[in-house]
Specification:
Layout lengths: L4 E4 L6 H12 L1 E5 L18 H4 L4 E2 L14 H17 L3 E6 L2 H8 L5 H6 L18
Parallel strand pairs: 1-4, 2-3, 2-4
Helix pairs in contact: 3-4
Amino acid sequence: MGRVVIVVGPTGVGKSRLGVEICLSLRGEVVNADSMQVYAGLPVLTNQVTPEEARGVPHHMIGMMNPIDTIDFDIRRYREMTMPIIDNMMKDGKCPVVVGGTSYYLYSIIYNTLMPDIARAQGDDEGNDHQAAPLLNND
């Protein structure tokens, strides 16, 4: 299995720029992990990368949800949409570079820990993190 690069940090530290640089070096594509950048029509408010800043690197999960009509977009839906994108990139020999600062989104990609029904299925009725198995090889 290939590697997944994760770039995380607070607002305004250059995550997007670093993600693009990594993609250019590793034949990668960016997968957004910012809870606000998934919404369309808010590029300035959410500081979405411009085409110039993207430098030809494909970006996924940015500006694809209508903020007015979407009331049911949650962590589960984010994960259901994101994991096939990552899987397809890896099958194509590309390096997924997950970029963002929304920890919950990042955790949903790395672990199945934050979804109580999955944790319960693994025998933990409280949905505690200690029962979860990693979804990605994060060594």
